[in-house]
Amino acid sequence: MRNRIIFFLIGVFILSSGSAYSAENEFKRNNPDGNKYEFARSYISALSYFDVINQRWSKSTLKKKFVGHDLNVIRGSMHYLVLDNSDLRVAKNYMVKYLKLPNSLMRKVADMLIYSCDQDIVLNNQEKNLWQDWLNKKALGIPKPQEEKNFIKAQEAVELKRKESDKAIIKASILLTKVLLSQDNPNDKGRMLAITDKQRSKLLDFLDEYGKEVLDWGLKPGQSTLDASIAVIREVLEDPVYIVHK
To answer: From CA 107, how far away is CA 231, in angstroms rounded?
Structure first.
């Protein structure tokens, strides 16, 4: 009986080792070194446009999702949504060129960010149409209380969908940190990144242009989509356990 247990444990060890070896080989096939600094720079630049959108709304006197009885609030909100879509298209264009690279992990990250941008554009158009319908109702007179409740409910539904869409950005940012890993074997100092020390500093400089106030590492409760993305990228770029090429 004891020998059977020993043979069973040896078998489990061999299978688990083989599984880990297979996963490692698959990772290497899907994430070959090359173009990783350029890709990370483009991704960080794309994220900067989400910061532009956040700043536009946070610094404005307009109140998003506010049921405006002021026509300027309504028209201003509609105009902001148009500007948001312009920024989302720019962010998306940073990733489009990477969809044909041989690195399938890069393609996955690029596709996820593009998908999120496309989804947000659709949702912004839906929200803009809600504001336009509200404006039309006001042109006919004072909207009824039930119409106002329906309008608020419809806006809240759009916002929930937007939050779901934006989860893809966080997932893409986490995958970006995997893209940065080198196929060189790690040593006793830590895991190897496929960038140089100078490139690492440049990426941090790009990130600090809009993320210098987000200093914590990793995901934490209560973070915004952008703050969470900055935090996971910052952790890999700043943590000395991740070493770089000379």
So the answer is: 22
